[in-house]
Amino acid sequence: MTLLAVDNIAIQFGGVKAVDDLSFAVEKGQIFSIIGPNGAGKTTLFNMISGIYRPSRGRVTLEGTDVTGLPPHLLARRGLSRTFQNLQIFYRMTALENVMVGCHLQERRSVLAHLLALPSVKRQNAESRDRAHALLTRVGLSADAEKDAGNLSYGALKRLEIARALASDPKLLLLDEPAAGCNHVETEEIDALIQTIAQDGVTVALVEHDMKLVMKISHRILVLDYGRKLAEGSAQEVRQNPDVIRAYLGSQASVGAAHAGT
Amino acid sequence: MSQFLQFLFSGLTEGAVYAMVALGFTIIYNASDVVNFAQGEFVMLGGMVTFFANAAGIPLPLAALIAILVAVVAGLALNRFAIEPARGASVVNLIIITIGASIFIKGLAQLVFDKRFHRFPAFSGDDPIRVLDATILPQSLWVLFGACAIFSGLWLFFARTLVGKAITAVAANRLAAELVGISAKRMMALSFALSAAIGAIAGILITPISPTSVEVGTLLALKGFAGAMLGGMGNPLGAVAGGLIVGIVEKMSAGYVSTNYKDAVAFIIIILTLLVLPTGLFGKARVDRV
Amino acid sequence: MAQRLLNHRAFGLLVIALIIAVAPLFFPSTFYYRMGTAIFIAALAAVGLNVLMGLAGQVSLGHAGFYGIGAYAVAVGPATFDIAPWAAIFIGIALAAAVAYLVGRPILKLRGHYLAVATLGFGILVSMVLTNEGTWTGGPDGMGVKRLVLFGYVLKDRAAWYWASAAVLLVGAVVAVNLIESPTGRALRALHDSEVAAAVNGIDVARYKLVAFVISACYASLAGSLAALSDAFITPASAGFLKSIELVTMVVLGGMGSVIGSIIGAAFLESLPQLLARMQEIEHVLLGLIIMLVMIFMRDGLFPTLARRFRRAAP
């Protein structure tokens, strides 16, 4: 069953077509990866799917409903959640509180009750806290729960974002370069984490530069180049696609550099 | 018709002053991303120092020169002792720092001078000149021509001189500018000095028409800022146009509606513009990168 | 840490309550009751503004406008419409909330400098209306305010106002602390750090900014009402630009996001003119200087910076 369908989507910034006439579909329960050289439009694509940019053309459908141009907080209610390539952490809050923010949609949101600190709010806080603790444990950050997010390492923050994104109980999780800047061991951990997330029934769309990771865990891979689809298929198919080979061999150095740089 | 023309003339005069204040804002904003709420105090210093120097027996042209120098020193000090040490502070912090500077300069001026309103004689007499079926004061012409001279001088400075281009470079990319050997620090100081001088000149030109006191700075700063925003923050031409529009609309509404709310008009315009055209008349849209 | 912080906040409020209770024992004259009242009322407005600025990170340079709405509600309401002063307090709050809602909806879309100037314009508009509509408000000279009567007791005595305003401040502070540690408080703090991350986590950023704006307007209005009632007199200056700046300064001095800090900031700024009474001419010079120095060298505000130093010195 198709969870996310993107039809003929396009966006341009000042005449530059960042994404051009792109279509693909993500099936429920899949790990769907999007690869391509820097500037291929991967993050821009995520920004359109998650409602941060409005596409100038095309349609985004989530579970059969047209959600094109819906603001991010309404998309979140429909089960979409994401992480960011450039970290978007709540630095003034603790790691635990960061994840508690992710519980927002599960919480009752009566401002008056909050102002008066009614017993129901205390219960609510305790529930969110437990939930956040469990998620931090899941991503391996339980020891850092009470630390200020600003004091965590880069790799830890990457995982913190995943925990926060999971807190909203998403159907579709967009991960934007979760392994960027992580060492070998951390990458393995994230690799395992993404697989367990998918096993729990969350569909994952992944943007990643680490080809080994992508080839290993993806059910399906979309290759972007200059905002257009270069190829789409299983890891096997993509690896053997002559266009992909040409593009990647032709720009081997830049892919490698992107690797080392990020 | 004659009435309309009359309001237009006084609006242009007032607007020229706002335009100069707006231009001062823009220069500093472009060089440092700081919105200088103390901009109006430069205008106040221009008028007040000229009056008191003149009252002390110094001839008017020399008094005016002294006033410009005082304002420039104030601008340089503001940059050196308040803005430079606060590099990297948040927008709110910077806003409050410049508001603090404004209160400080005002307080100091009150200590040195007094709280009363002052004016000095117009440069070329007070006999109105007939234009079509309205009249215009010679001093208004001074304001308008002074403003024009400043605008074209600045345009030449930024477009044609190396130093002007260096300031533009620092504004565009501080690090890159420093890499090619431009001292960002010096350019910042220069833009504060320039902006203060323009403010002081505006103050000197307008004082014979509307008397000055230590209190005039705040409202002038706000209206100049309204003009700068209306034109699109960071755009010098926009600042001039915005300032003129605020001045004209203000005088029109004072003339045709009520003088009680003439100060309000500027803010109503600015709030409406911000909501309809968030980047101002000539500003560029910006995309937030995530 | 969250739990510890809560305790730390509760503890801080307890200390403040204790200071308030004990301070009158050392008052040399009843004048100090009046000064205390002024401090508590300013602190109440600052605690409210801190919800907007400290938690949600949105600046308002026009909050004295809401303060003025509250002040004139208790002045004009009883004088012109024969409303009981206590009822006028609530009418003021409702009015301020309604105005905040209507004004906030469009202008909270703006950010940074733009929001600062838009709110500033709003504040100036309010003070202009209060100055110009002289038939109701007495114009620039201000107007007298009827005394507050509660359960047949006329609140007039300086000491009575001291205790009453202290009680309201403490309740207001507890409510603000409650908010910080609630889902709403977390949403506000989240959008302060990253609006886009808050939004993808399901937070309706525009709505929560508006919530913070309305809450802070209610605090400001209540504070304005109390100020007018305790002084029995009010002028449009109470809604003016300088008052707005004072409120912002209190929040920033005390440290953005800290309820206790806002109270300390208010106490500092309110008592400054009294301490400088003999040096009235240099009051503004010093005020400007202090604002600049604190903002440059203690960017997090007086209270958090000193607290951090203290913690470092005595771990």
What can you see in these coordinates?
The complex is a heterotrimer of chains A (262), B (290) and C (315). Chain A is globular. Chain A has eleven helices and ten strands. By secondary structure, chain A is an alpha/beta fold. In chain A, the strands form two sheets. Chain A has a six-stranded mixed β-sheet, sandwiched between helices. In chain A, strands 2-1-4-5 form a four-stranded antiparallel β-sheet, with helices on one face. Chain A folds into two domains: 1-79 and 171-184 and 207-262, P-loop containing nucleotide triphosphate hydrolases (Rossmann fold), CATH 3.40.50; 90-168, no CATH class. Helices cover 42% and strands 24% of the residues of chain A. Chain B has one domain (2-216). The relative contact order of chain B is 0.21. Chain C has one domain (2-240). Chain C has helices spanning 2-22, 31-55, 64-81, 85-107, 112-132, 134-137, 158-180, 183-193, 195-200, 205-231, 241-254, 259-275, 283-297, 302-313, and strands at residues 143-144, 148-150, 153-155, 233-234. In chain C, the strands form two sheets. In chain C, strands 1-4 form a two-stranded antiparallel sheet. In chain C, strands 2-3 form a two-stranded antiparallel ribbon. The B-C interface holds B 35, 82, 85-86, 89-93, 95-97, 99-108, 110-111, 218, 222, 225-226, 229, 233, 260-261, 263-264, 266-268, 270-271, 274-275, 278, 288, 290 and C 53, 57, 59, 61, 106-107, 109-110, 112-114, 116-118, 120-122, 124-125, 128, 132, 196, 241, 245, 248-249, 252, 256, 281-292, 295-297, 299.
Helix tally of chain A?
Answer: 11
Give the strand order of the largest sheet of chain B, numbering strands 1, 2, ... along the chain.
1-2
Task: State mean pLDDT of chain B (0 to 100 scale).
Answer: 87
- The end-to-end distance of chain A, rounded to whole angstroms, is 34 Å
Give a short account of the largest sheet of chain B. Answer: 2 strands, antiparallel
The CATH superfamily of the largest domain in chain A turns out to be P-loop containing nucleotide triphosphate hydrolases
**Largest sheet data of chain A:** 6 strands, mixed
Coarse morphology of chain B: globular
pLDDT < 50 stretches of chain B: none
The greatest interface here is: B-C, 44 and 44 residues
**Rg of chain B:** 19 Å
Look up the CATH topology of the largest domain in chain A.
Rossmann fold
Number of domains of chain A: 2
CATH architect. name of the largest domain in chain A:
3-Layer(aba) Sandwich
Global morphology of chain A: globular
Structure classification of chain A: alpha/beta
| Structural class by secondary-structure content of chain B | mainly alpha
How many domains of chain B? The number is: 1
Q: H/E series of chain A, N to C?
A: EEEHEEHEHHHHEHEHEEHHH
Major beta sheet, strand line-up of chain A: 6-7-8-3-9-10
